Task: structure prediction
Amino acid sequence: MRTITIGAAQMGPNQRADTRADIVARMIALLDQAAAQGCDLVAFPELALTTFFPRWYMQDQAEVDTWFEHAMPNAATQPLFDRARHHGIAISFGYAELTPDGHRYNTSILTDCAGQIVGKYRKIHLPGHDEYDPERSFQHLEKRYFEPGDLGFNVWRNMDAWMGLCICNDRRWPETYREMGLQGVELVLLGYNTPSVNSQAGDEGPEKRLFHSELSMQAGAYQNSTWVIGVAKGGDEDGHPMIAGSVIVDPEGQIVARAQTDGDELLVHPCDMDACTFGKQTIFDFKRHRRPEHYGRITGQVGAITPDGKAL
Ligand code: ING
Result:
């Protein structure tokens, strides 16, 4: 048994006016709860330190950059790293990263139990658009404010397990999990900020959004025989509702813990990393069953092309 007791630290809304200190204090409170419940690792959401600012159209880069972190850890987050190290708890969380050479990413990091960063991921699948869209009931400007991630999908050895990171929209793409599955991943940590409604299709509400969110993570877990921890930042941010629905999914795709609220809420589950092994050695023994010679389109094409040559 290689059991890691994992806390999924769902966060309620971060308002535009909230300070980093206000937000980090809430994260530390969740971390203390996790320590009291024996957690070894705690996962926080995407863009945990701020409101989901890509919903706002901004033209002044200086204003945009107020939502970004110039270093990690930094003065605002050092108390979080210090508390995690004090508890001996590994953490992961997402934030907006501004690199010293001026690149901007939607980023997530993973630490070991001593508070050292052992993994960094920059979001590859950026949803939304890059210019103001008057047709939308609200904006989703991740393509405006972030560059696509440049680090790929990686897996790191941490706490005697193979761990990987992805972020929000990445969870909807099977390639995300398979890239990590082909590295033997046993634990995928992902945060998300998912609007409760579709800005382009009024009939898609929170129920369908929650269904798609769980479907995607359950499939990814099952098809790669890995644990998947999906952690929401939910609730009403400045009048914009986001789904909650954080889950812990086991390597057979079963949801073993699910958030009941859309606020700050800690899910805790003892996750045995050895539970990944049977699936990897049988139904998803990739070396015995996969046929990459027939998968050329998956990396050879970007968009769909019908047999009569029509690009969709
Ligand atoms: N948010 C959403 C997500 O992928 C979205 C955007 C929602 C895209 C629903 C498509 C359908 O969960 C982020 N931040 O990626």
The chain has one domain: 3-300. The mean pLDDT is 98.
